[in-house]
Amino acid sequence: MTPTAPVPAEWSPHRAMWVGWPSHAELWEENLEPAQAEVEALVRALAGPGRERVKLLVGKPEALADARARFAEVDGVEVIDGRFGDIWLRDTGPIFGPGSARAAAFRFNGWGGKYELEHDDTVAAQIGAASGTPLDRHDVVLEGGALDHDGAGTILTTRQCLLNPNRNPDWTEARAEAALAASLGARKVLWLGDGLLNDHTDGHVDNLARFVAPGVVAHPVSWGGRDANDAVYAEAARALSAMTDAGGRALKLLPLPSPGFVGDEDERPVPASHMNFLIANGAVIVPTYGDQTAARLVCEGLKTVFPDREIIPLPSIAILSGGGSFHCISQQEPA
């Protein structure tokens, strides 16, 4: 059997970037128009000169005309009529392999049965068909946001999500690693513990730690006096500092400020994270949540590892009301 090639790192060139368009008023309610404004800003930044060909997936017929009108004059944006339950394409879509010659598609069960929405289990097939990419289907439950890739076969993940019995009840670390090797070319899996508090994804790693260069991982540090995830961040940093990648190289860490405390209307902490940045051709788009000093420091830190890309901070407060941010609503096609 031919070994599966590793998933390319997000900083490798892309032929396109998929983005989900907020389409369901019944889900977003008063946040629908603010979320659309934030996604519009993201799409316009991605479609800047020399950057991405954006494939904007609209999930409901009544949202299509407005989306097409907004981007009619924007070069590099293709508005695609599709169907989804919500915009989290990182989790419902396929994971593209090298050159986007093939893509891996997994079962999706609404993040462990919490949000099972019509059409979400068909998104991978829709994206595969629209991109002309054959899909390799794997009979396991897996979301793209649960993993982060270095391009050489090292995968970061969390036990809280991947070993949660609400996904694959029989998974142990060994079984999960075998599945990731067969489907995504994993050569080594790096296991963190818990993700952010009140994260309905059960601790996706793209809110906690991200590869930003070979052997280099960005991670949050507590910011402000009320950061409810202080212990989570400290434990992740401790674990990462003792890890090596698939090539045997000790990881270097890039600590970046968290957004500090961000709460809902009941002052419960919500999973706001600067780690949900999106690495694009020519740019890195950083979600911000109101603390401009923290956002500036994060951008300065990312510039040290992405000196040739524009670091663009954009608000993501309305998108966060749905549970995620820029990385969660997107999926790249490697060139």
Q: Order of strands across the widest beta sheet?
A: 3-2-1-16
Extract low-pLDDT stretches. none
What is the global morphology? Answer: globular
| CATH uppermost class | Alpha Beta
Identify the CATH homologous superfamily: L-arginine/glycine Amidinotransferase, Chain A
Strand count, sense and barrel status of the largest sheet are:
4 strands, mixed
Please state the CA-atom Rg, rounded to the nearest Å. Answer: 18 Å
SS field, number of helical segments: 11
Proportion in β-strands: 15-25%
What is the terminal-to-terminal distance?
A: 25 Å
Order of helices and strands: EHHEHEHEEHHEEEHHEEEHEEEHEHE
Task: Indicate the CATH topology.
Answer: L-arginine/glycine Amidinotransferase, Chain A
Task: Kindly state the number of beta strands.
Answer: 16
CATH architecture: 5-stranded Propeller
How would you describe this structure to a colleague?
This protein has 335 residues and is α/β, with parallel strands linked by helices. The protein has a single domain (14-334), classed as L-arginine/glycine Amidinotransferase, Chain A (5-stranded Propeller). The protein is built from 11 helices and 16 strands. The strands form 5 sheets. The chain has a 4-stranded mixed beta sheet, with helices on one face. It is globular and about 50 Å long. The two termini are 25 Å apart. The mean pLDDT is 97.
Key features of this structure:
alpha/beta; four-stranded mixed beta sheet; 26% helix; three-stranded mixed beta sheet; L-arginine/glycine Amidinotransferase, Chain A; 335 residues; 11 helices
